[in-house]
């Protein structure tokens, strides 16, 4: 690494040359797994839930994203011959008579996703690829994409796939329906939530799709349509990015929450979108993006063969959803979107600025997903206490999805992916020791006190059961019969590395258990200190993508909890000395700050 690189990138050391080298490594490694026609890129590994034909289409379309960004940012300079290589694949893949022809949009829904990537790159590289394709191949491409017109798309981020494909068709004189585009834009508007956030559909679905899809496509669609971005898109993006930079750990790890985590450094996408749109500070945006990609590059992704496997750092098949196959992780290429910006762009020439967690301790309320966010400079960890997200609706009464319904997520811990709720949970244990679920909870307010301490709450009817039948897409599946128990209410008070978690049960109660952070052995310290009544304690050991030995401390009532009684526990993740002290309706934090208990809470032995 040259000295100049550290001057411009004092936090990561990464420059545009590092990004370009990573993209080239990924693209050259992918060629080794391509069919002779280049239309199918079949990476090693067990087939995904949609079969090897879809896997091979994903392998082509998603690596095509990286190739397109690489050439677009170089204004057509193409020493690796990427455009010619992918042109061959397009010619074969769109030929209905070729043995390597692609799965069509009217044959499998996943083709609708991949078609959007193909259309997007054909737009970005038009002078060097589309304009040079023989007329016959151009006609094949139009015929391949045409089934998007008038087709049904799920009312989630997929609506943008139809918009992008039809806008491209319109730009090349192909068939399209303006009513499809208009309806899609209107539906996408319905996803808007507070402070620039989008939900992925009508549910409380907040995850990385907010950035790598729902903020990504509006900007690119605007370019494809030949119009300036809607000022509303830009305002939302700028506000969203102000939250997003607070959700990156000092080590570059993005928040470990939500489905499709195998896409890894796709989490860098919204920062590049901001740079392209001219919103946000270029040095801070690149710091966030470079931190994320460097985090994975230094932890084995890509691996020694230059491949992205299904996993987080290394391979971990259990992280995959049913729609995930060996080609799926290459949606990480979206995180390389910055390469579509030329070397002289301010995002590449500005000096990196520190992330919020590097600049100092912070607390922050993120209203749309109902998150209380706390970052601590000493350990570089960002934590989220979750009182608003479960990828469901209030009252839905479903089993919890581990990636959405836990009470806490962070940049240093991975939720347990199997079993009943344990980590970051408040659960009632039935007579067999099974833990209850919280999906469908009623969200309370989330707010910051004048001291900077955060508070939030939620309540739900404890229920027991399994996920319903159907494919696992990372969120709760309906259809299973639930058993019901008492109402559970939780109030969180958060400051620094600590949370005071206050819990009470209403009605016939069972044993109450409070689960702490699932920290990998050797990772940040994780502790749970139970207050009066929570006299039992222990630590469970489980496997996660961050470590075969992940420690989950817990505390519990020895017997059935007393209905109506408030119980208090203090939970730590990271650097922390003595836990906060609750006395005389005051919480005294380790830093000396004193906050009042929420007015709704009356602990036994304390005056109201």
TrEMBL record:
Superkingdom, taxonomy of origin: Bacteria
Name this polypeptide is given: DUF2264 domain-containing protein
Species annotation: Nonomuraea composti
Pfam family, one: DUF2264
Boundaries of every DUF2264 domain copy: 15-355
UniProt xrefs under InterPro entries: DUF2264_N, UCP014753
